[in-house]
Amino acid sequence: MTIRPLPDTLINQIAAGEVVERPASVVKELVENALDAGASRVDIDLEEGGVRLIRIRDNGSGIPADELPLAVSRHATSKIASLDDLEGVATLGFRGEALPSIASVSRFSMSTRREDAEHGSVLEIDGGRVGEVMPRPHPQGTTVEVRDLFFNVPARRKFLRAERTELGHIEEWLRQLALARPDVELRVSHNGKPSRRWKGEGGGAGAPSLLSDTRLHETLGQEFTRNVLRVDHAAAGLRLHGWIAQPAYNRASTDQQYLFVNGRSVRDRSIAHAVKQAYSDVLCHGRHPAYVLFLELDPRRVDVNVHPAKHEVRFRDSRLIHDFVYRTLHEALAGTRAGVEAGAGA
Ligand code: ADP
Ligand code: MG
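Structure for DNA mismatch repair protein MutL, as requested:
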């Protein structure tokens, strides 16, 4: 076969293979864009577990009409312009890949208006075929609609699960979001019925406030909230804060382990290990702790460009962070450990 460059749509569909696994990944990418645009309220409307429709509306900055075609082009982003920017990136997005990928495997439309624009605009893309920018009334902010996900990629469509399963994945991601950004109001509807609502808390526009007990309770339930210890410790330019469950409240799985690094929900083996170690003498074998932890550090000490879907990060000084997390939690659990020993001795 002769060597030929791939057509753009196919390039985007290949990228979509990495970024867009299921409806929940679309919700994640679109809501992250809304947050990066400074939204204080995000409305999420879903149909059939997001497979038929995902509509995300935000009250963020909006996009200038003449930049709409760029927003949906591959490797076009307003968030970084140089390697130096990448190394200190503080936004959730930076790859300029999500919109073109999503638009190549769905019926996609993006409507938007900047505060200073006379009227709104819309751009529609059908399975990667890009239309013209047209005028369309829209309040300040952006609405993205994604219909019939994977309609043109039968191999992917086949892997979609039942409506309830896909909805479950979306809800899990929304819980992470609700924990990470208590300052943002979230409204969710499914098949035309309002299903969840989180009120925005304090902070003021765009300023992430600390997670309140109310939102913790609304998100993870009363059992969790009743059995937690507060943690807040800073040293060596690192800060770890949040809640960890008392050892008596433990889980059969790792389902209530939430870790955010600079506001981004991530999985990290080293930190998970540090937490496990801290609990090792107060938890039975095979049981797992529950926690909501926020680690904050200079963005230059963490590489977020590791994974296309950004589920993982790489720390420049991983060992130091491991030990910091271990020591902070070991200390926080000291009271419960005394309890265990006293109990055992009695
Ligand atoms: P990235 O988020 O990595 O920059 P995306 O493909 O997700 O890449 O988005 C491309 C660009 O489109 C963003 O850099 C941003 O400028 C613009 N954009 C996307 N969604 C929104 C939104 N909801 N509000 C304002 N601008 C947006
Ligand atoms: Mg993005």
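Residues 29, 33-34, 37, 58, 60-63, 71, 77-79, 93-99, 142 surround adenosine-5'-diphosphate (ligand 1) (CB under 6 Å).
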